[in-house]
Write a structure and sequence with these properties.
Layout (H helix, E strand, L loop, with lengths): L13 E5 H18 L2 E5 L6 H7 L5 E4 L2 H10 L5 E5 L8 H7 L2 E4 L2 H11 L4 E7 L21 E2 L13 E3 L10 H18 L4 E3 L13 H14 L2 E4 L3 H4 L3 E13 L2 E6 L8 H4 L15 E6 L8 E7 L8 E4 L20 E6 L2 E6 L3 H8 L6
Parallel strand pairs: 1-16, 2-3, 2-10, 3-4, 4-5, 5-6, 6-7, 6-8, 8-9, 9-10, 12-13
Antiparallel strand pairs: 1-11, 11-12, 11-15, 13-14, 16-17
The structure holds pyridoxal-5'-phosphate (PLP).
The site of pyridoxal-5'-phosphate (PLP) has 14 residues, from helix 8.
C-alpha cells in the first residue's frame, strides 16, 4: 500500500497524484489480466481527470462510464481498439443516439429501458443487461446496490426470459470497497444457478467494480472463477474498478490556518474543507492523515474553513502539537473526492500536482475566473 509523505507542493490546498501508486494499482490489474484473461476497464467516475486517463490508457482495455459527458471524455482519450462500457439508470432520450455511437457496450439497467432504447437505437454497440443478484454485502444501504427496492439492475429473481433475445452480455456490480472475493463467488454461484442456461448464448460478462484488488493478497479464487467462465461458456469477462485504480494514488495536502481551544479540545482550521472530499460528510467517514498516531500525545480536531458546523474531518492524535502553518496530508483520497468536490462558501478547489520520482509538476490551478465562470448567467435581453 502506498503511504508516504508527499513532496510538499508550493501551493495549498493541493491534490498530489502519485505515479508510483498508480503503477502499483496497474501492476495488480495486469497480474489479474495475465493470469485469468479478464479484461480491465477503468471506471472513470472515480476520477475523470484527463492526465490520469491518458496515463492509464495503455494499461487498460477501455473505460466504463455512466453518462454522456463521461462517454465523450472516454471517447476523446481512447482509441478504437478500446472498449467503452456504459450502464446507468437514466438514459435521456435526447442523448441516446449519441451514447450509442460513443459506447461499444451498453448494459441496460431495466427491462423497460432495454425495450425502449434497444429497438430504437439498433446500432453498433453490444447490448447487455444489468442484473441485480439481490445478495447484499455492503454494510450500509446508502451504498448497497442490492438494497430493498433498489434502482440498480433487473432483479435476478424476476427477470423475464424474453429479455435475453438479442442480448450479448450481462453486467453486475454489487459491492462497495470489498477486500475479499467471497461476495463474488457467492454472487456468481447464484447467477449461474438461475441464468447459467443462457450464458453460452452471451459473449461477455461484466463483473463491475467495488473490489479493492490492491488489498487482496491471494487472487487465486478470482483467477479460477474467470478461467472457468471463459472455459465453460467462452465468455469475455470484464472488471471495471474505480477506487482500486486511483484511490491510493492521490493525497490532499492542506495547511493549518488557525488553532484554538473549544470546550477543552484543540481545534485546527485547515485551508481545505470537507467539500474537497464530500464523502467524509456524506458517509460520515473519517479520512486518514499521515501524521496520525493513535499513541500520540497531542489531540486535534481538524476542521474545514466553511461556515458549516459539521465541516469536520475528525479528531486525530499526533506526536507533536499541531500549529498554524503545519501541513496536513490526507492520504488515499483519489476516488470520488475531486469529482464530487465543490466551492461551497467560495473556497477555491485544490490545485492538482503530478508526483513522479522526486518531481512535482502542477497540472491544474483553479482561479477566481473559473469560479466566476461557474456562476455567470447567460446575459438576458
Ligand atoms: C456500475 C459501476 N461500475 C463500477 C463502479 C466502480 O466502483 P469502485 O470505484 O468501487 O471500484 C461503480 C461505482 O459506483 C459502479 O456503479
Amino acid at each position: 500500500m502506498h503511504n508516504k509523505a508527499s513532496l510538499v507542493p508550493p501551493t495549498s490546498p493541493a491534490l498530489v497524484i502519485n505515479q508510483e501508486a498508480l503503477h502499483h494499482s496497474v501492476n495488480t490489474l495486469n497480474y489479474l489480466r495475465e493470469k485469468s484473461g479478464c479484461r480491465v476497464l477503468y471506471s472513470i467516475k472515480a476520477l475523470p481527470f484527463i492526465p490520469v486517463l491518458d496515463w492509464l490508457k495503455p494499461h487498460m482495455d477501455g473505460f466504463s462510464v455512466s453518462s454522456l459527458f463521461e462517454a465523450k471524455i472516454a471517447h476523446e482519450v481512447l482509441d478504437s481498439q478500446h472498449s467503452i462500457h456504459l450502464t446507468t439508470p437514466g438514459i435521456r432520450p435526447d442523448e441516446a443516439a449519441e451514447l450509442s455511437q460513443l459506447c461499444s457496450h451498453i448494459s441496460f439497467n431495466s427491462e423497460s429501458q432495454q425495450q425502449h432504447f434497444d429497438s430504437q437505437l439498433k446500432s453498433a454497440f453490444s447490448a447487455g443487461l444489468r442484473i441485480n443478484p439481490k445478495l447484499s454485502f455492503a454494510p450500509d444501504q446508502r451504498f448497497d446496490p442490492c438494497r430493498l427496492h433498489s434502482k440498480l439492475g433487473v432483479s435476478l429473481d424476476k427477470i423475464n426470459k424474453h429479455s435475453f433475445n438479442g442480448l450479448s452480455g450481462l453486467h453486475i456490480h454489487t459491492v462497495f470497497s470489498q477486500a475479499d472475493y467471497a461476495p463474488l463467488i457467492q454472487t456468481l454461484d447464484k447467477l449461474q444457478r438461475q441464468l447459467g442456461e443462457y450464458f453460452s448464448q452471451l459473449t461477455w460478462l461484466n463483473l463491475g467494480g467495488g473490489y479493492l484488488f490492491n488489498k487482496i493478497d491471494d487472487h487465486q479464487l478470482f483467477i479460477d472463477l474467470v478461467l472457468t467462465l471463459r472455459h465453460d461458456y467462452d465468455l469475455q469477462v470484464f472488471i471495471e474498478p474505480g477506487k482500486s485504480v486511483v484511490g491510493e494514488a492521490v493525497d490532499l495536502v492542506a495547511t493549518v490556518l488557525d488553532c484554538f481551544d473549544s470546550d477543552g479540545k484543540r481545534v485546527a482550521v485547515l485551508d481545505t474543507s470537507i467539500n474537497h472530499n464530500p464523502e467524509v460528510f456524506e458517509y460520515q467517514r473519517q479520512p486518514n492523515i499521515l501524521q496520525h498516531d493513535p499513541q500520540g500525545e497531542y489531540q486535534a480536531i481538524l476542521v474545514g474553513s466553511t461556515c458549516l458546523a459539521g465541516d469536520v474531518f475528525g479528531e486525530y492524535r499526533c506526536q507533536q502539537a499541531i500549529k498554524v502553518g503545519d501541513k496536513i496530508q490526507f492520504t488515499h483520497v483519489g476516488a470520488y473526492s475531486t469529482v464530487k468536490a465543490n466551492r461551497f462558501n467560495g473556497y477555491n478547489l485544490p490545485d492538482i500536482y503530478w508526483s513522479d520520482t522526486g518531481d512535482l509538476q502542477r497540472l491544474k490551478q483553479y482561479d477566481y475566473q473559473s469560479y466566476r465562470e461557474n456562476w455567470l448567467g447567460m446575459s438576458h435581453e
